[in-house]
Amino acid sequence: MLLRLDTGIAEFEDDPDIGCDINGNVFPEVELTCLDDTGCDTMSIKFSDMKLLMGDDACEFAAPANHLMGFTKFRNADGSTCYSMIIAVEINMYGEDENGDAALMLNEWTPITCAVFPEEADSNPHVERLNGPWLRQMFYVGSAPVAQPSVYGALGKKAFMAGNLLPRISPEERVVPAFTRPRYGVRWIKTADGDIIPRPDKKKGGRVPGETE
After folding, report:
1. What does the DSSP assignment read for 117-130?
2. Which DSSP helix (H) or strand (E) runs through 53?
3. What is the rounded distance in angstroms from the CA atom of residue 64 to the CA atom of residue 137?
4. At the top level of its lineage, which domain of life is listed (predicted)?
5. Are 117 and 84 in contact (CB under 8 A)?
6. Cα–Cα distance between 120 and 127 in angstroms, integer?
7. pLDDT tens digits for 119-165?
8. Could you give the CA distance from residue 185 to residue 207 in angstroms, rounded to a whole number?
9. CATH no. for residue 57?
10. How far is residue 208's CA from residue 165's CA, in Å, rounded to a whole number?
């Protein structure tokens, strides 16, 4: 997905300088890969991604002042909560034209709100960018059952039915869903990487590290 800071703010304020960084350069367009999460109602990116969107302003400021909309509280899937910045961005996506050349999927960029994960998320390999609802609101969306699935978007359903957009796959590429049986009476430990795993030498009941009664 292709992001940039919202250019409409400069037009609304009638101040072209708002659309540029401190050195007069137009804010860059940044292409990011996101996890497709159908339960996510807001696009989420990392703090370092936001700094890329800021261009040279990232050297002087902690956030894009004219595009910062505030902070909000998010509840994560594990029940924890965090506060994230909300910034105004515009989104588009690269696809292919009728000649097979790279081209923007939409003529007009779409303004959306975007959550920014806290700075410590940059070094956390378990934190994923989330694409939010924009993709499914703007495109026909499909996927193929491969080991590392991608989500494919098209402006019309013919791209899937007649355009042969989805890739052909072999039987070996089909992945049977795995089922992990719940573990009872196992003592849990936290590894140096932050993963929580069963401790093989202790078959005693115990709580997850950090969990309270």
Report:
1. --GGGGG-TT---B
2. helix 47-53
3. 27
4. Eukaryota
5. yes
6. 10
7. 888 887 778 899 999 999 999 888 877 766 788 888 888 777 766 67
8. 10
9. 2.40.70
10. 44
